[in-house]
Amino acid sequence: MSSISIAILPQLIINGLIAGSIYALAASGLSLVYYVVKFLNFAQGAVITISAYLFFLFLDLMGLNYGFAALLAIASSIIIALLMNLGIYKPLRKRKATNVVLMLSSLALLIFCSSLMLALFGSGTKTLSLQNKTFDFGLFTITAIQISIIFSAVLLLFLIWLIIKKTKLGKAMRALADNKETAQVLGINPEKVYSYTFIIAGALGAIAGILIGLEQNLYPRMGVPIIVKGFISSVVGGIGSVPGAVVGGLFIGLVENIGIWFLPSGYKDVVSFTILLLFLLLKPKGILGVRMRDDT
Amino acid sequence: MIHEYLLQFLTLISIYIIAVISLNLAIGFTGLLNLGHMVFFGIGAYTSAILTLHGMPWYIAIFIAGLTASILGIIIAGITSKLKGDYLAMVTLGLVFIAIAVSRNWSSLTRGALGLPGVPDIVRNNFHYMIFTLMISAFCALIFYRLVNSETGKIFQAIRDDETAAAILGKNTYFYKILSVAISTFFAGIAGSLFVHHINFVDPTIFELEFFIMILAMLIAGGLGSIKGSIAGVFVLSILSESVRFISFSPALLGAFRDMVFAVALIAILLFKPRGVFGKVDV
Among B210, B165, A22, A147, which residue's Cα sits nearest to residue B173? Predict the structure, then answer.
């Protein structure tokens, strides 16, 4: 065993839960789009970045109050997510582009938006000005922001689950995910449902962006590592499954943080990518055993 | 004497041509969607940098750079041979982030985020180096042209079009896929080596996605499955991105604007001309 004592284990688990909540939020946006629209939308990372920067713009540069700044940032990010779908993904689908082409264009969008944030806000890191309070529970400490991250993640993911399982829209999403042709025959308009999917994913990404912005610093490329972790989490949990995104996110968050016990902290990423490779090669259905598409 | 700026430009173009053609062999000719191509480029760069900094002559270092990239490529291709389409894309994309994490943390070898400065020049004179890379680039283009028109190249393309059919016809598709990746990554490593001896520095940012998006935009602009398309793609997009320089942004902004040009170019090609200029197959 390493030199770090067992006394810090509770703290590592708490840190893992916080990181895991963030990963689960990032993963659920990816998974939702993958489930309904059938491609890996890396531009979800761009939505996260844009939302964080807009929140910073409204809150710190324009001096709006927290609630209003957050609301404006979320609304603008949802519009951006919707525009990405209507402006780029929809025309691509119209010309029958493969899911690989959609994925590549989403990667290009992610790079574009990171560079745009760099051009607009500069390469330096930004910190949101916010009062934070630390609670000491003896075994571990946690801040007010971290508690709100965990609670928002739980609440949001429960809401998404409700939408998919209990609403008419969710039913249409499931029908489309299952069989597009049959769904169309039954009178479901795929493009309309896709747009709603991007609105929900956009909202998830926007809220994730604000929460991440509160917990960490902002920098133009912040969306890349976050969406990559979200991607790993969704593969581990079972890609295309929102509950899977939660399981995967918490799993990766916990493994990375408890892994510090054995490994230098710089190897966090190596640990999660090794897990990614193992899952893709040995258990591509993920922990929850999601049914895979067979057309790949 | 040719202007220094033009020399830099032509040297980079020669290096990018090798990177793009070798990626074309994997994606365009064999149908293997390798999004981790620039990992092998970076490994070539690091290998060559480390070896020459330890006093090894460059002509051995370049070769070992290609070989190291190729051996890693063979291992990855061997493990992932069952994966296709977006699952292969996911694994190879994962390689990018593993490479970044390892190069940042293996400090004893790579000096982490500080990078390795002072990588020696192969030849002192920039004009001679431009000629040197141009020759290697032309040589690579010739090799790939011969390869894709050979018996082996036809089998690669058969695997791309219908792997099951190729297997039914008695072709060992496992072997040929690995062979394609071995050749592709070998030349990616060579390109990386030439690159690092040109800019005399390497750090973990060589693995960043921006660089891959640039190479991918060049490949798809030229067209998948066409060697001359790849060469054209490199020229057209390089000139396009260099034109950003004349709008005179600050150096910090220049990089960001260039990345934006490549990202927009890639999206525009995928939207409006998915087969590029000379492309023979869809992405």
Answer: B165
- Mark yes or no for CB contact A266/B257 under 8 Å: no
A89: closest chain B residue by CA:
B271
Report the range out of A75-79, A242-246, B236-240 with the highest average pLDDT: A75-79
ipTM of predicted assembly, 2 dp? 0.89
Which one, of B202, B210, B236, lies nearest residue B222 by Cα?
A: B236
Nearest to A129 by CA among A182, A64, A209: A64
Which range among A24-33, B172-181, B270-279 shows the weakest confidence by mean pLDDT?
B270-279
**CA A127 – CA A215 distance, rounded (Å):** 9
**DSSP-derived secondary structure for B17-50:** HHHHHHHHIIIIIT----TTHHHHHHHHHHHHHH
Q: Which of B168, B192, B207 is the last residue of a domain?
A: B207
What are the residues whose beta carbons fall under 8 Å from the beta carbon of A274, sequence distance 6 or more?
B98
| DSSP class of A218 | B
| C-alpha distance across the termini of chain B, in Å | 42
The pLDDT tens digits for A175-194 are: 998 888 889 898 899 999 99
| Side-chain half-sphere exposure of B254, counting CA atoms within 13 A | 12
- How many CB pairs lie under 8 A apart between chains A and B? 124
> In whole angstroms, what is the distance from residue B87 CA to residue B213 CA?
19
Question: What is the identity of the amino acid at B262?
Answer: F
- In chain A, residues 149-208 whose CB comes closer than 8 Å to chain B: none
Contact B97 A91 (CB under 8 A): no
Question: How far is residue A217's CA from residue A122's CA, in Å, rounded to a whole number?
Answer: 14
| Separation in Å, CA of A269 to nearest CA in chain B | 6
Residue B63 and residue B154 in one domain? yes
Q: List phi, psi (to 5°) of A134.
A: -105, 130
Rounded to an integer, what distance in angstroms lies between the CA atom of residue B46 and that of residue A292?
38
| Phi, then psi, of B83 in degrees rounded to 5 | -85, 145
Cβ contact, residue pair A109, B256, below 8 Å:
no
Among residues B207, B242, B257, the one where a domain terminates is B207
- For residue B264, the enclosing domain spans 208-283
Separation between Cα atoms, residue A196 and residue A200, nearest integer Å: 6
Distances (CA, A) of B218 to A222, A224, B209, B230, B238: 26, 22, 14, 7, 8
User: How far B79 CA lies from chain A's nearest CA (Å)?
Assistant: 8
Over chain B, what is the mean pLDDT?
89
pLDDT tens digit sequence for A125-179: 888 877 778 888 888 888 888 998 999 999 999 999 999 999 999 999 999 988 8
Parse chain A into domains and list their residue ranges: 24-222
**Co-location of B33 and B151 in the same domain:** yes
CA nearest to B266, candidates B254, B281, B283: B283
Using a CB-CB cut-off of 8 Å, the residues of chain A touching B256 are: 115-116, 118-119, 220
Whether B165 and B216 share a structural domain: no
- Which residues 107-146 in chain A show a CB within 8 A of chain B? 107-112, 114-116, 118-119, 122-123
